[in-house]
UniProtKB/TrEMBL annotation:
Cited InterPro entries: AAA+_ATPase, ABC_transporter-like_ATP-bd, ABC_transporter-like_CS, Metal_Ion_Import_ABC, P-loop_NTPase
Listed name of the protein: ABC transporter related
Pfam family, one: ABC_tran
Region (Disordered): 1-29
Keywords: ATP-binding, Nucleotide-binding, Transport
Organism: Nakamurella multipartita (strain ATCC 700099 / DSM 44233 / CIP 104796 / JCM 9543 / NBRC 105858 / Y-104)
Amino acid sequence: MTEPATAPAPAAVRPAPAGPAAPANDPPALQLRDAGLGFGRRTLWTHLDLSIARGEFVAVLGSNGSGKTSLLRTILGEVALTSGSGAISGRPLGRGSTDVGYVPQKIAIDAATMIKARDVVRMGLDGHRWGLPVAVGARRRRIRSRIDELLESVGAGEFGDAPVSMLSGGELQRIRVAAALASDPVLLLCDEPLAALDLRHQQDIAALIDAQRRLRGTAVLFVTHDINPVLPYVDQVLYLAGGSFRLGRPDEVLTSAGLSELYGAPVDVLRAQGRIIVVSSTEAVGHQSHDDHAATELGGEWR
């Protein structure tokens, strides 16, 4: 396997050392046992056993409709498993867990809104409560200090007081990462956070998330259509397709033979200059190079 090119470190973010290892008797950050999910007659996946340790980076790949985003919604407690069970740090899946941070692809923002970047991060601190409590005195100072710390940690200190409607796509994603990390989660869920970003910002955000998980020992479950920006950081790949899945190291999962079996059709996995492109005889099934858009993905409207 060709060695992947390492993405450059994002500006204004210091390289992070590996975080402290979790004690051997600590439960996994995420544990799914014989898990299945479906809607009506449609089965997205079944018999999924997935264990993610603290500090581990797992990429979730697959065509549209394979259940990638539905997997995240299940972990967030928004959708119940059809079968099996799941736990976060040994506790059953459920809504509002501060052990889980969530980085969405995007957040709808009114162009006229004057909400500041630091206000979005504040929601990450108190958003699990009913509304944002009014903080005064020492508590207000502690909250502001914590927000400043989070903004600096993601290289967003310079625009913390800027209206979010004025920020670029890359700057917004830094703010979303800071908000997701506010509760010191054991598990960080990322739902295609690189979508709609140019290649440089994809590399910056991918490196930022990796640096934070190393620093904090946070597990990362990263949904993406393109493996390449995160390939240098990935420990495991979960590939969903056609109601089935493959799970393992990138060099185990991303093979022509394995994906051909998964899709039930001939698939070629090409490696060139540290990049991976997955193509069939007629079209690609994902992981395309975003700089040339040479490939499109198999699948329908479902995510």
